[in-house]
Design goal:
Mean pLDDT: 84
Helix content: 25-40%
Number of domains: 2
Number of strands: 4
Distance between the termini: 53 Å
Oligomer: single chain
Number of helices: 13
Radius of gyration: 22 Å
Length: 329
């Protein structure tokens, strides 16, 4: 057995420093090569600050899972809880001790393993890369979960490996896991696409939740709840910093295709074809303050559209009615 001491600087609170002494199994991770867990582990990237992984995960061994468990205990347990059920002290005790700092949403329940941000179809588990990117990026401008991109990449992979031990779904559905949805090349926007997207927004009743100008203030918004029965606020499309997932055109297209499991936000994969989803993407993008069609085109390497017309973003929306809490699907 090897001994490893971790000095974990906790950025929150008064900057407490915890010293944890842990025992690490020194068994070969690769019997063929005879390398120990550490010899294998330290062969993998330790880069920090990245959202996309630059390398593959180290081999998933008992040693890697144990390493991920220790990292989880040091940095994740306060919100996600000892069991990973989302009932950590930060969530459970906030009403009593710090209501002003209560998280806006319950932390992810890793036992239930229902994930919002995924590259896979609705109802599917996320890929390992999806989990890695969520840990790295954080969620909603650090309001829900902070970014952990300061951790070495291989440490983040270890946390992914540990998280996957917390729910039986990962083993039960291993043979049925679906591939990520395909996202083709992002088409440069045109005025016609934005106008068509405005019509899609209306037909799919997006304004019921997100409001006529996309500010998350639709008539159904106050009644929306997630699968846990907790109130959930529709996304404000005018402020990309408030997006749970990737706020780029490709990221928004992914969300329209996969939906957010566990929430009223459905997948549009069965209701909109690829062209309609891109139209909706660009209409939603156009709702941002200061958005410019030709600047968006330039960002994709396309020339200006001489006949670009101003698009009036506000649309009519009917009052909420019973059963209208979410869009079709």
């Amino acid at each position: 057995m090897n001994k490893l001491k971790w000095m974990l600087g906790l950025a929150s609170g008064a900057g407490l420093v915890a010293t944890i002494s842990v025992a690490v199994p020194n068994k070969p991770a690769d019997p063929a090569s005879g390398k120990s867990f550490y010899q294998t582990f330290f062969d993998y990237p330790a880069i920090t600050g990245n959202i996309e992984p630059v390398g593959e995960s180290p081999p998933v061994t008992p040693g890697l899972i144990k390493y991920g468990h220790w990292t989880y205990r040091g940095l994740c347990i306060g919100c996600h809880g000892i069991k990973g059920d989302g009932n950590g002290a930060v969530w459970e005790l906030a009403d009593q001790y710090s209501p002003k700092h209560k998280l806006p949403r319950r932390p992810r329940d890793f036992e239930g393993a229902v994930f919002k941000v995924r590259s896979t179809p609705s109802g599917s588990l996320p890929t390992d890369k999806d989990l890695f990117k969520a840990i790295s990026r954080g969620l909603v401008a650090d309001q829900d979960m902070p970014s952990f991109k300061f951790l070495p990449e291989r440490d983040r992979w270890a946390v992914v490996a540990y998280i996957k031990t917390l729910s039986p779904r990962w083993e039960e559905e291993a043979d049925y896991q679906e591939e990520p949805v395909e996202i083709g090349e992002v088409p440069p926007p045109t005025a016609a696409m934005v106008l068509a997207g405005k019509q899609v927004y209306k037909e799919m009743k997006c304004a019921k939740c997100h409001g006529p100008k996309g500010k998350g203030d639709g008539p159904s918004a106050p009644q929306l709840k997630d699968d846990n029965g907790l109130s959930i606020k529709p996304r404000d499309f005018t402020d990309p910093s408030q997006f749970v997932g990737d706020s780029s055109p490709a990221g928004i297209y992914q969300t329209f295709t996969t939906g957010f499991d566990g929430t009223p936000m459905p997948s549009f994969a069965d209701f909109l074809d690829e062209e309609q989803r891109w139209q909706l993407v660009w209409y939603v993008m156009s709702l941002r303050s200061g958005w410019d069609l030709n600047q968006a085109r330039a960002g994709l390497g396309a020339g200006p559209e001489p006949s670009a017309a101003q698009v009036e973003v506000e649309i009519d929306v009917e009052p909420a009615a019973a059963g209208d809490e979410e869009s079709p699907g």
